[in-house]
Design a protein that fits this description.
Length: 425
C-alpha cells in the first residue's frame, strides 16, 4: 500500500461517536467503531467536510506555524486570493501584502499572479484543441483526488497543469534566486491556505515523484490574528500588488471560468454539487461545454474550512476589491512552458476501491456484498457506524464489521432468541 499523508486528522478524546461526519464524507472514508470515528486513510481526499460538520471539533487540519519560516534565510509568502476577502473595511490588497512583510517574510508573491498565467495557458490549450473536452480544471486538489478515486473515465479530461499555487511558488523562488544569489534550498515559500487539501498537496503532491515548490502551508485561520495586528500597525504602504481582476477572481466560484473569456463553461461548487456534475459528465449528459470548473468548498476557496469569514461575505468583499484592479497584469510570452504542465496525466487509483487483487475473489466478494445488502433494511441510517447499508455490507465482507452492528439485524436476532426461549418453555 502506498504511503499517505493527510492534513485532516481526528482527535479521539473529543470524538463522541456521533454520525455527522460519516453521512457527509463524499468518499465514505469514515466509520464509527467502538464509539469513535476512524478515517480510512486511502479513501480520504482531505476536502474538510468532516471538519465543517463535526459539532465537537474532533476533526482538525494540520498546517505549519509561522515560526517554521525561520528555517530559511529568505522567506516568501504565497497568499491565496481568498485571504483578501477575510478583512472588513479593506479597500487595498497592498495592506494585506505589507502586513505579511511585517510578520517576517522577505517578499510576497500572490497566487493570483500564477492564476492569471494558468488562465492564459488554459485558453491557449482550449484553442489548440489538443486535450479531451470538456477540460476539467485541476486547481482544486480535493476534486482531482475525488476523480482519481471515483471517476476513472474522467481522468483524461483533467487539465494536466500545475495549480496556481505551484506556479506562483516556482516563479517566486526563481526570482528570489536571481535577486539574492541564494540557492533554492535556502529559500522558503509558504502558502497561506484556505483549505486542508492544499496542505496535503504540498506534503504529498499528486505526482508522487515530484516535490512541491512550496515548503509549507500556513492556515488562514492561524495567521489571521497576527496578520490583523500587523496590518493595524502599518505606518506606510509599499505598492506590492501585481495581479488583476482575473487572478483575484479565482478566490470565488466562477472566477476561473470567467477567465476563459467565453461562454462555453460550467462552474459548480460544494462537494455534493461537484459529485452530481461529475456523474453527469461520466454519463455524457453534459454537452456543448469546453471547460468545467469544480470547487469542493461552497463558494469556492473563500468557503474553505481554514478561513475565518463567512464565504458569502468574503465573496462580496472580493467583488468590491476587483473593481479597482486592471483586467490582468501577468502574461505568458512564448506559449505554455513545459514547467507549468504535469509530467504525466492523471491516473485512476484502482487500489482504493478494489475489493481484492484477484478478479475472481473480487467477484465473489461483490456477490456476497449484494446478498448482505439485500438483507439489510436499506435505510442508510448510519446507526451501525457506516454511512450506508452498502458500505456496511462491504465492511462485513471485508471482515471489519459484523451483521449484529446493524441495530435492525440485532433486534431480529434478539426477537428470534426470545421466540426460541418461549417455545422451549
Amino acid at each position: 500500500m502506498p504511503e499517505y499523508f493527510h492534513s485532516v486528522v481526528l482527535e479521539e478524546d473529543k470524538c463522541c461517536g456521533c454520525t455527522n461526519c460519516i453521512k457527509r464524507c463524499p468518499t465514505e472514508a469514515i466509520r464509527v467503531r467502538d464509539g469513535k470515528a476512524h478515517i480510512i486513510t486511502e479513501r480520504c481526499i482531505d476536502c474538510g467536510e468532516c471538519i465543517r460538520v463535526c459539532p465537537h471539533h474532533a476533526k482538525k487540519a494540520r498546517s505549519d506555524s509561522i515560526e517554521e519560516i525561520e528555517k530559511f534565510k529568505y522567506k516568501i509568502a504565497i497568499p491565496a486570493p481568498a485571504l483578501f476577502g477575510q478583512f472588513n473595511n479593506m479597500d487595498d490588497i497592498d495592506i494585506v501584502l505589507n502586513g505579511l512583510l511585517k510578520l517576517g517574510f522577505d517578499s510576497v508573491y500572490e497566487v493570483s499572479r500564477g492564476a492569471e498565467l494558468v488562465s492564459q495557458a488554459t485558453r491557449q490549450l482550449i484553442r489548440e484543441n489538443k486535450l479531451k473536452h470538456p477540460i476539467i480544471s485541476s486547481a482544486c486538489p480535493a476534486v482531482v483526488r475525488l476523480i482519481k478515486q471515483r471517476f476513472p473515465d474522467l481522468c483524461e479530461n483533467v487539465m494536466p497543469m500545475k495549480a496556481p499555487m505551484e506556479v506562483s511558488a516556482m516563479l517566486a523562488k526563481k526570482y528570489a534566486m536571481e535577486e539574492t544569489g541564494l540557492p533554492m534550498e535556502d529559500i522558503g515559500a509558504f502558502f497561506i491556505t484556505p483549505c486542508p487539501a492544499k496542505v496535503t498537496e504540498i506534503n504529498r503532491p499528486m505526482d508522487v515523484n515530484k516535490r512541491s515548490y512550496c515548503d509549507g502551508a500556513i492556515a488562514i485561520s492561524k495567521i489571521y490574528p497576527k496578520l490583523t495586528s500587523a496590518m493595524d500597525k502599518l505606518t506606510s504602504i509599499e505598492p506590492l500588488a501585481n495581479s488583476g481582476v482575473i487572478g483575484v477572481g479565482w478566490a470565488t466560484s466562477g472566477g476561473e471560468s470567467a477567465a476563459m473569456l467565453g461562454d462555453r463553461y460550467l462552474a459548480a461548487d460544494g462537494i455534493e454539487n461537484v459529485i452530481r456534475v461529475l456523474e453527469e459528465l461520466e454519463d455524457e449528459r453534459i454537452r456543448n461545454v469546453d471547460f468545467v470548473e469544480l470547487n469542493a468548498c461552497t463558494g469556492g476557496c473563500v468557503g474553505g474550512v481554514l478561513t475565518v469569514e463567512n464565504p458569502y461575505v468574503a465573496q462580496a468583499r472580493i467583488h468590491t476589491l476587483r473593481k479597482y484592479l486592471p483586467v490582468s497584469q501577468n502574461h505568458l510570452k512564448d506559449g505554455v512552458p513545459d514547467k507549468m504542465m504535469w509530467d504525466k496525466p492523471l491516473e485512476y487509483d484502482e487500489n482504493v476501491l478494489s475489493l481484492d487483487k484477484d478478479i475472481n475473489r473480487a467477484m465473489e466478494m461483490m456477490e456476497q456484498i449484494e446478498k448482505i445488502e439485500a438483507s439489510l433494511p436499506g435505510l442508510d441510517c448510519g446507526s451501525c457506524g457506516a454511512p450506508s447499508c452498502h458500505a456496511m455490507a462491504e465492511d462485513i465482507v471485508k471482515g471489519s464489521a459484523k451483521e449484529t452492528e446493524c441495530i435492525f439485524k440485532l433486534r431480529e436476532q434478539i426477537q428470534q432468541v426470545y421466540r426460541d426461549l418461549m417455545q422451549m418453555m
